[in-house]
Write a structure and sequence with these properties.
alpha+beta, binds flavin-adenine dinucleotide
């Protein structure tokens, strides 16, 4: 039961770490310990069963922008192993990927099983041992059996020189790591949709438009993020039965995850439905409509590229009635219309889960990790990768990329270590 390297957690980060170590140093004895009866269970259900493995953003300094937590720390690691390297990894092993319009990358088979089969073939061929139904109960430093670490499990004690923790968002393991001296940033949900009851969007489910969104508290004070930046995002916004969803909202939920948790999910979202224009341009378009369409009914014209039903609601909210002609629209209504178009505020009362897909913001404090090696600064020979760290991203394949890059970096560090 003595191994050179043990990886705790048979998920995305754990498998990629093991495969990389065994590829770089085939002579090492490598073991994965997985508490469940199956491995790679999240990979299986991810992306609606299709597994959104990475994102077609191949420039490290751009890729990092998708990570509300980890942006600074991932810059170096992405220069060592980025999304393009992961595409190459799969292609070299007969699993071609495809890029969807929004940049998400999936296996061409549209089945997460292709990814699982690829990993299982690799571990078998490389001789990586996998023990399932084997939950690690405790981790202790040791000098017994020439090892550095002792792991207690229901299958007995395991020993190793190098220990990699890839247990995802698992509270029990976070407690273990706390006992070892690590700081855990408390977990809060990320990637959720906003619950809104407002007559401007009531009944408009399915309507989508490109928008820019910003967060305010209930007193209409702009919410600032930990790094002092304003909480804002842009992209398609989808009106749902319960409120608002779509990439713009999901991104905003990720950036504001910690602040919105503190506000108990009672806050205000401001929507700019026309981010491509500035206010003066909007006023110009409206004034042009007032002149050229003066005798036409406002509801029968649409000077902006907005979904018809949404345009009607914004006109109503501005006090413009259904028979009113452009010539009859006064200054006050125009001011209100510009406000509804560019800075419409909606009261949010709670959150909903996005397609069962959620990510946790929180985990091992990034200050305690050396991002050249992913080694703990608290203990030598202890490495951490994947969601166990306080790193998370918006949707789009970025969360898996964090797992792949972390696994690669851990493996490089272990393989390069000359003491084995
Ligand atoms: C429904 C859903 C869909 C998703 N879809 C996508 C997607 O398409 N693209 C994307 O990028 N991200 C997606 N994500 C996020 C992504 O799945 C995670 O970011 C990723 O799985 C994290 O990998 P990990 O290896 O760090 O953790 P995990 O994949 O969670 O693996 C951790 C493993 O460790 C095991 N473990 C925990 N504690 C112990 C212990 N004490 N002893 C032994 N084993 C232990 C667990 O059983 C688990 O198998 C999705 C998430 C969900 C919930």
């Amino acid at each position: 039961m003595v191994f050179d390297a043990i990886i705790v957690g048979g998920g995305a980060a754990g498998f990629f770490t093991a495969i990389q170590i065994a590829t770089l140093r085939p002579e090492l004895k490598v073991l994965i310990l997985e508490r469940g009866k199956e491995v790679l269970t999240k990979v299986k259900i991810s992306g609606g069963g299709r597994c959104n493995v990475t994102h077609a953003e191949f420039v490290p300094n751009e890729l990092v922008k998708a990570y509300p937590r980890g942006e600074k720390e991932l810059k170096g690691p992405f220069h060592a192993f980025c999304s393009g390297d992961m595409v190459a990894f799969f292609e070299e092993r007969g699993v071609p990927l495809k890029i969807e319009e929004d940049g998400r990358m999936f296996p061409e088979s549209d089945s997460s099983q292709s990814i699982i089969d690829c990993f299982l073939n690799e571990t078998e061929h490389l001789g990586v041992k996998i023990n399932t139904n084997c939950s690690v109960k405790s981790i202790t430093k040791t000098e017994q059996k020439g090892a550095s670490w002792q792991l207690e499990t229901q299958q007995g004690d395991f020993y190793c020189n190098y220990l990699a923790i890839a247990t995802g968002s698992n509270p029990k393991m976070w407690n273990q790591l706390k006992m070892l001296g690590h700081t855990i940033v408390s977990p809060v949900p990320s990637l959720f949709t906003f619950n809104i009851k407002d007559k401007r969007i009531n009944g408009l489910m399915g309507v989508a438009s490109h928008a820019e969104v910003k967060l305010f508290d209930k007193n209409h004070t702009s919410i600032k993020l930990e790094d002092g930046k304003k909480a804002m995002a842009s992209g398609p916004l989808l009106i749902t039965h319960w409120g608002m969803s779509g990439p713009a909202i999901l991104k905003l939920s990720a950036w504001g995850a910690r602040e919105l948790h503190q506000l108990n999910y009672q806050f205000v979202v401001q929507v700019n439905w026309l981010p491509q224009y500035d206010e003066e341009e909007i006023l110009l378009v409206i004034e042009q409509a007032k002149t050229s369409e003066a005798k036409k009914i406002v509801f029968n014209t649409r000077p902006f590229d907005l979904p018809k039903r949404l345009w009607f609601r914004l006109l109503e909210a501005s006090g413009i009635h259904q028979q009113q002609k452009w010539a009859e629209v006064g200054k006050q209504a125009i001011r209100k219309l510009i406000q509804e178009l560019t800075a419409a505020k909606f009261l949010v009362n709670g959150k909903s889960t996005f397609k069962e897909e959620f990510v946790t913001a929180g985990g091992v404090d990034l200050k305690e990790i050396n991002f050249r090696t992913y080694e703990s600064k608290v203990y030598k020979n202890l490495f951490l990768a994947g969601e166990v760290l306080n790193i998370d991203a918006v949707t789009g394949g970025y969360n898996f990329q964090n797992a792949w890059t972390g696994g690669y970096m851990v493996a490089q560090a272990i393989a390069e270590n000359t003491s084995i």
